[in-house]
Structure formats: C-alpha cells, structure tokens
Fold this protein.
Amino acid sequence: MEENIFEKKFGAVTARYITDGESGAVGLCILPDTDTALKNRRARVMPLAEVKIAGSVYGGSYLGGESMKLSPDSYAMKFDRREASDSAVVTYLKSESGIEIKHTLAHREGRRYLTVRTELTNNSGNDIKLEMLSSFALCGISPYIEGAGENTLKLHRLRSKWSMEARLVTEPLEDLLLEDSWTMGHYKSVRFGQVGSMPAKNYIPFIAVEDTQNGLIWGARIGCPSSWQMEITRADDGVGISGGLADREFGHWMKTVKSGETFTAPDVVISVCEGDIDDIAACLNEVQEDALDVPESEESLPVIFNEYCTTWGNPSHDNIAAILDAIKGKGIDYFVIDCGWFKEDGVRWDISMGDYVPSATLFPDGIKATADLIKSRGMKAGIWFEIENVGERSRAYNDEEHLLKRDGVTLTTVNRRFWDMNDEWVRSYLTERVIDFMKENGFEYIKVDHNETIGIGVDNGDSLGEGLRLNQLAGQEFFTKMKREIDGLVIENCASGGGRLEPSFMALSSMASFSDAHECVEIPIIAANLHRAILPRQSQIWCVIRKSDTVKRIAYSVSAAFLGRMCLSGDVTDLSDAQWNAINGGIAFYKKAAPVIKNGFTRIYRENVTSYRHPEGYQAVVRTNDSAALCVVHTFKNAPNTISVPVGECNITDVYSDTDVKAEVKDGVLTVCPNGDFCGVGVLLKKKY
C-alpha cells in the first residue's frame, strides 16, 4: 500500500515521505537508527498536513465531533514539488482550487529533533475560512511490528492540574479503542489538549507513542501560548499522530485567510529514538536548550529567595529588611518581592492587582528604598506582576474599553478581568506601569504570574479561538519588549505555578515556577516529572522552611530543590543554628551540583508511587553528563531500607542528607540507605572514564 517516494537522513533520524495508490496523499514517517527490519503492513497513508476549510465536505468514518482530520480538503493537497538541502526538506502541496501548503522539516546539526513548520497560502482567488490546520502529522507508527502489533503500542501523555503538574499517564492503545475494526474501514481518533490562556493547565503539549516490542518511541511537542490539541488516529495497522492549534470543534477556532495571504501554524518538534519516555523527552528538550536566551547572571544557576511563603502576600520594607538580615552571607543571589506590594490598606492582594502603585503603608520611603537595600546585600532585586489580569478592587478593573470581551460583554471571572493585549493604550499603560517602573526602581528580575485562564476565547471577527490566539501572541510580544528594554532582565514564567510550562513561553523566560506546591510532600515527585517537560535549569522549585521543621524535614525539602533551581522561602527569621546548618549544607551541595543540573540526561526511577498527596515507596532521579552524575533520592511512606539505581562507573564525591547516610557504588550501581520514611538524599558522583 505504501510507496516510498523520498528519504532524507538527519543525524539519527530518517525522514521518509510516502504515498499510496489509493488516495495519492503524501505522508511523513520518521525512522530511528536501528537494525530492526521494516515490516509489510496494511496501512493507509495519512496526509502530512491536515486542513479543513469551512463550507467544504467533512470527513466521514464517524469522526464528526471527534476529529476534523482526514477531510477531502486534506486529501486534495497533492504533491507539487520538493526542495531538499543538508538541513531541511521543504515539500509543497497544492490543490486544484489554488490552496498551497509549504511543509518544512528542518534539522539542526548534532541534534536529535526535527522542527516542523506548516504554512498555508490562499491562491484560490477567494477568501477562505480555516476550521483546522495541523502543525504536524506523522503516520506509519510503528513500521517495525507485524500487523497491528496487539499489546505492543502505548500512548504517553503528561497530565497537569494545579499543584500536580506533568503526571505521566501511559495507556495501551487497546484501552483507548485504537484497535483496527474487522473491516479496517473506520478511523478512530483520540483528541486531547487544552483550551484557554494556560497552555499547560490540563495537559503538557506533548505526545509519545512507544513500540514496546522493539524498544522504540516517537514523540512531539507543541510550542503554543493559547489553545492547542494533539491527536492519535488509527483505522488499520498504522498509527498516526498530529497536532497544532485547537480546531473549530475543540478550541472554537476559525481563521479567515484572504486571497493571497499566508497563515502559519505553530512550530512543532518531533523525534524518534530507541528507549523510553525519558529518552524521547530528552530528545525533544534539546530544542529548549537551543532556544535559551538568558542573561549572563543565569549561567551559574543562582539561588533565589522569594518572600511569598514568608509574608503570604504582605511584604513590607520592614519585614524584607528582617529577612535580608537573616539570609545575608548564605549564598543567595536573587531576592524577589512577591504579590501584595501594591495593595491598598484592608484589601487583599489577589483582588487589587492592575494599578501597580506601591503601598505607602508597606513602603513608606518608596519601594526603591527596598530595592536598593536588596542590592546593597549583593542580590538582584525582583518583583511580582500579573501583567495581563486586573483585580476587581483596582481602578483598572473598570477600564472596560481596554478589557477583553466575549459576546460584547467584558469577560469577567471571579475577581478578575483581562487586558486586551492588542490595544495600543494597554501596551502604553503596561510599559509605564511595568517597564518604566522597574527601570526607575532598579529591579532586574520580574516574576510574571497569570492566575486565571481566559477560557474558550474572546471576541474576534473570525472566532473566539482566534481572538484568544492573537491576544496571547500580543502578550508574548510584551515579554520580548521587556527583555529588549531592560538589559539583563531575568524573567520568571508563572501561571498559578506551572500553567504555562510550554516551549514558547519557556523560550521567553529565564526560568519558570514549577508549581504552587509550596511545601507539600509531593514536591520532589512534581519536580522530577518536569524533567520530561522543561529543562531542569529553568525549573524553579520551592524550598519552604518552617520553624517547626525537623532537620530531617529540612533535608527532604532542600533535596527536592536539587531537581531544578533552588528557591528558598519560609520562616527564615526564626530558625535555629541546627536548622540553618542543614540549609547551608544544602546550598553548598546545590552549587556543586549546578553543572549537572544545567546540562545532563535524566532517568526517573519510582516504586509504588501512585498517590501524590499521600505517596508511598520511593523515587530516585539520576541525572548524568559527560563527567558527573547527580542522584536525588526521596523516600515516602513504607519505603525500603535500601535503594539501588544504575549510575555507571563513578566515585562518590559528596552526599547531602539529615544524617550520615550510607551510600556506595559497586559495579556501576549506586546503593543508598536512607534514614527511614520521608527522607531526602543527594549524592554527587564523578565519572571514572
């Protein structure tokens, strides 16, 4: 059924363009470096670009309401020409009506991922309205199994919700009803994603399909600040995955493309490799390394102090001065003033953001005096903003002319409304209240929060989803403006913790708040999860210390911060010498471990961890690079007395915990004997070879 029409090898990944005699569609498969033989299968070709135009015929196979893929519009796009180079393959498709698609598959030398860009140009002579345009589409998974490969293929997704980010969910395709029917005549598609302005609220924008028989895995990740979707589709032996902007059915999206205009879908990265979920995540994470644009101050992975879990939204010059006295000389590099610095007397911070006038009660000498005090202690001064939202007790809340609308009515959620980020007045206002304010007061770090989602979208001549897309892109343009106008600015990406942990926002940020799990026992579990979604060097992890904490509990919290960027908070003005010794030892260990946190490969080991709020068993995270390894172990309820994980031929150079924990390496396996349940241990190792 399949006919290979073109192949191009990019490093360890081969792009294989195929067609079939039945539909004439051009499809794309990607193949790993493997000695496994390709098998003959019954698999129809799925188009490498999926498109649906309003007013045209919909696809059949009972897909209505379930998927907009495989429409006659998609199959009408026939091969026109190809341009190939060492770094890219550009495929041009064209319909008889004059719709053209430019599909670019690009490779960066030395990397294991490919970037896909899909552009649609309307040369039909008439305006068209898109209901769906995919960013990518792969077919033919897995070409290394006989027939349908029952009990062989598994789907991996990263589920997310507030304070429980990036949980891996793995399902056999049979459980998703993705088996071929007796006729092989009807497609089944599972579509998932997120709708709104928190693109990682429900799922991380990621998909992977594993061939467990051959130890191979395919994956893709979307960079999109608004509503997005992924799909896995099947009718016969072959499996296809695709994704992009959330379509009309899923994301209330339609887009008019005028005659002569071009519309470009969000970029996607794809890859295939031998291994498992950790291996494919590492391949896809390479694009985030390439997209990094951070100031020089970030290269050493500085330690952060954020006062939120100390003052709980009530910062003042006096309590910040007391905190600074407590943490001086502790190796902390950034100090962040979190929410509440602007609130009026007697008003909560979470309903008063938007005007951003510092409180004269909290900062009687002006907030610049506090920023100057922070800098006098050798730290960069940071400050919190919720740029795109306004609270119900702010004056900005009533500037309805400049706020987003839905159905002609100002879009309002409990306590919040939203700026129209495409409004020139709004951009000018935010430039004054945010950028100019930071310059005038000497802030070099901004924590940008986003504590509510816009939802399905906002008024726009095309659709609610298109209104949302344009607003989110304009919001990201403001991030770019901040970086351009404030030299060396450190940006923290926060959205109720991890609501914006996706590539396009991470490329604009130095780091992200990993979660709002401020001082929960599940922190190390979430922090480890995020190694599959973002770079650990960009994952800022809360390390909140309470005066009631035992040294064992402090070591548990501090060890969790070795899984990313350490962010201290809590009762630092009331700690004993013994408590500070545990913290100081952890900071010293973190600084030694920073090179492997910054650059490395992560493997996650867990046993009996099902509930996050009430975890049992243990977790061990091993991160390695060319010269070193870091193992971070956490025990939970009913943990074993010894934990062993492979680390390779290494020597132990440092161990951190609350007691003298026994740790040894034998035959490339590290064995740790933790101090009972809810213990945290960090082990730093140097490779022998």
